Amino acid sequence: MVRRITLNHITKIEGHASLDLKIRNGKIEKCHLEAVEGSRYFEGMVKGRRFDEAPEITSRICGICSCAHTTCSVMAMENALGITPSTRTIMLRELVTIGERIRSHATHLYFLSLPDFYGYESALAMSKDHRDKLQVALRMMKAGNELIKLNAGRDLHPISLQIGKFLKEPTKEELGRIRDALVSIIDDTVKTAELFATLDYPDFERETEYFSLVNPHHYALLYGNLKSQSSEFEPKDYKAYLGEYHEEYATANFVVKEGKSIMVGALPRMNNNWHLLKGRAKEILDRHSIKFPSKNPFHNNYAQALELVYFTERAIELIDNLPETGEEVKVTPRAGHGIAAIEVPRGILWHEYELDENGNILYANIITPTAQNLRNMQDDIREFVPRLLDRKKDEIVLEIEKLIRAYDPCFSCSTHFLKVNWE
Amino acid sequence: MTAEKKTKKLRVGVYGITGCAGCMLSLIFNEDELLDIAELVDIRAFPFIKEKKDERSFDVVLLEGTVVQPEDLELVEKLRKKTKILVALGACSSTGGVPSLRNFIDPEKYRHLVYHKASGIQDMPPKPVDEYVKVDYYLPGCPPDKKEIIRFLQDAALGKIPKMYPHPVCVECRLRENRCLLEEGKMCLGPITRGGCEAVCPTNNLECWGCRGPVDDANLTELIALLHKKGFDTDRIKARLETFAGLKIAQIEVGHKKWLEESH
After folding, report:
1. Which chain B residue's Cα is nearest to A61?
2. Residue A318: what pLDDT?
């Protein structure tokens, strides 16, 4: 018996994607998850531009992770130019990154993911019966956006976060307001983690390489080595470990390690860093039955929820320890090569640039989290679907969509650099 | 039963073609107003956050993204037929946005990123929506102003279409008592760019990049002369002008010639 499952334009994800599945006698013959988003060729468009124009342009790769692209671009440029910003600047950047993590996870968990588990077609449809839950989400989204806005000038496409400095820094009074906003959502983050600790996740496990940044002191954000079960390396050496390839049917690149799928995102981060959790996040982890490392991709939701708790407290700690001033660094164009890898809501983001002696861009390469997860999502679907085949088709479809959404994929990001035609 | 007369709600669709979802998020990130807006209007389709859709007809469609492939154009044409009011949401849809920069760069710069097979569909030159169909209203900017989107929907629900902000960014910038970044030698496009953004970039000490597209009476000649005087060369000025709204700026006549074309 041959069954064909085609999901055109999967909803409740960032960007546009479709899935083409062919099943013969209970075996998957074809599993193509493809972005159906057009190509924008960002790496081509920044070529020839001055080094300080890249963050402004590459921010436009993605709305929800615009702070991520800006920060990563800025840090790769700093590496190319051989400059190190002040501790204050770095901490302000961490705050922006955390703000983005809060608004992104809150949006994903409540607006894209939870309706599946509660049996609603959308969060808006939930608002009659579960308005309180949406209000929790909206309060966290607002606090995250405020945190970004007061530091970087605007919540989407940050303005003042630049190479070597912030063009405008928050005042003491503004930092106080941010702190209050963060304190006000602690209960909401805890409620969220309690909720996502106890959802009825499908019982599915498939081990893969869980990649994240690690550093000895903190749950890594902007700095650290790349680590998985079988390797640890510095970001600058990534080409020796990770390979990119394309499939003829897909519009996005695939990233693999030794030909095998890898996973990035909240679950791999939690798998590699759970022992660094503290405060309320650690209490919640200790109290509930889901433990890390976990091989269940659906637990990415819970890992995101735990991150909401941890990073809200971490942001308060950063504000309380922020140096009053930071020395401004001089930015001078020169020839150079710089790579940065940072943790962003959906996983590790890479920006790499090569500059000529006037600081003009000769080469740019950007690898997004969803590109790294694409192959893994497909491999998961291949293993997950055969055990669903005795169910009704719409149930199978919902379960597949739940799996895809658990990754919080961003197809806007993943397709910016490559276009392959499909038949 | 209430005696209140049941009025028909505004039927709204929110769609994205090739883009970054940032404009749709700009709507969603009106955290205090979102749930009320969702009650004020009837959101019939919003694939980014909604599974179900009723696409029979709309009063208003908000559309994000740039037309870069035939699928995008297909959706644009379909939506145009189904809606009374088509709104270009954000820079990509209104002016082409950053993706439209590709129209001005040498294809050699991105050829290595293209893995086309010999047959099959092709990229199209990236263009804003109004290059293909009539657009009734614009919510420009990258990102569009969050509050402007809400105000538009509130007005539209009352049967009104607001007027677009007519003045350049400089007007709001002066009102906010900012230092003039042009005078400080920055390549600020404020004088030719449509305001309504509260001059948010200059207020944060970043020069205006022109993301809201040119104002109707943009004096491009004067700005270019001024930027030359400040020491910027033609290539850099051109690249900057092309970044968010190059196709629209190329349509501005400068001394009977189109400056962007001339300088190619």
Report:
1. B20
2. 98
Burial A285-300 (b: 16+ CB within 10 A, else e): beeeebebebebbbbb
Residue A415 falls in which region: left (phi positive, over 0), alpha (psi -120 to 50) or beta: alpha
Is the peptide bond preceding residue A293 cis, with omega within 30 degrees of 0? yes
- Asked if residue A42 lies in contact with residue A365, where contact means CB atoms within 8 angstroms, the answer is no
Mean pLDDT value across residues A169-194 = 97
pLDDT in tens, A5-26: 787 777 777 777 888 888 888 8
Chain A and chain B share a number of CB contacts under 8 A equal to 191
Q: What is the pTM of this model?
A: 0.94
A69 within domain boundaries: yes
**How much is the ipTM here?**
0.93
CA atoms of A208 and B2, how far apart (whole Å): 59
Strand partners, B13: B45, B61
Minimum-distance CB partner of A9 among B47, B50, B114: B47
Q: Does A16 touch chain B (CB under 8 A)?
A: yes
Choose the mutation target among A18, A36, A37, A117 for the interface with B, i.e. most B CBs under 10 Å. A37
Residue A21 pLDDT: 86
Question: What does DSSP say about strands A165-166 and A161-162: parallel, antiparallel, or unpaired?
Answer: antiparallel
Q: Is the pLDDT of residue B177 over 50?
A: yes
Is there a domain that residue A36 lies in?
A: no
What is the per-residue pLDDT across B10-20, written as a single tens digit (0 to 9) for each? 999 999 999 99
Q: What CATH number should be reported for the domain holding residue A409?
A: 1.10.645.10
Residue B93 sits at the chain A interface (C-beta within 8 Å): no
Average pLDDT, chain A: 91
Distance in angstroms between the alpha carbons of the first and the last residue of chain B: 69
Spatial distance between the Cα atoms of B142 and B139, rounded to a whole number of angstroms: 10
A349 in a domain, yes or no? yes
Q: What pLDDT shows up at residue B66?
A: 96
Distance CA B126, CA B124 (A): 6
Q: Which residue has 């922020």 as its token pair?
A: A322
Interchain CB distance below 8 Å, B109 and A45: yes
CB contact under 8 A, B22 and A157: yes
The answer to whether the CB atoms of A47 and B105 lie below 8 A apart is yes
Question: Could you give the number of structural domains in chain A?
Answer: 1
Tell if the CB–CB gap between A62 and B200 is shorter than 8 Å: no
Distance, CA of B242 to chain centre: 14
Return the higher-pLDDT residue of A144 and A398.
A144
List chain A residues with CB under 8 Å of B19. Answer: 412
CA-wise closest residue to A66 among A416, A376, A404: A416
> What are chain B's domains?
11-157 (3.40.50.700), 169-262 (no CATH)
Task: Please give the residue that has the higher pLDDT: either A402 or A394.
Answer: A402
Q: d(Cα B116, Cα B104) in Å, to the nearest integer?
A: 21
Of A350, A335, A343, nearest in space to A417 by CA? A350
**In angstroms, what separates the C-alpha of A175 from chain B's closest C-alpha?**
16
Q: What is the mean pLDDT of residues A89-116?
A: 96
User: In A241-316, at which residue ranges do the beta strands (DSSP E only) sit?
Assistant: 242-245, 254-257, 260-263
**Contact residues on chain A for B24, CB-CB shorter than 8 A:** 63
**What's residue B256's pLDDT?**
55
Tell me which residue range forms the domain holding A60: 42-414
Is residue A420 one of the residues assigned to a domain? no
- Burial label for A364, CB within 10 Å (0-12, 13-18, 19+), is buried
pLDDT, mean of residues B169-177 = 97
**CA-closest candidate to residue B139, choices B155, B124, B123:** B155
Residues A98, A92: Cα–Cα separation, whole Å: 10
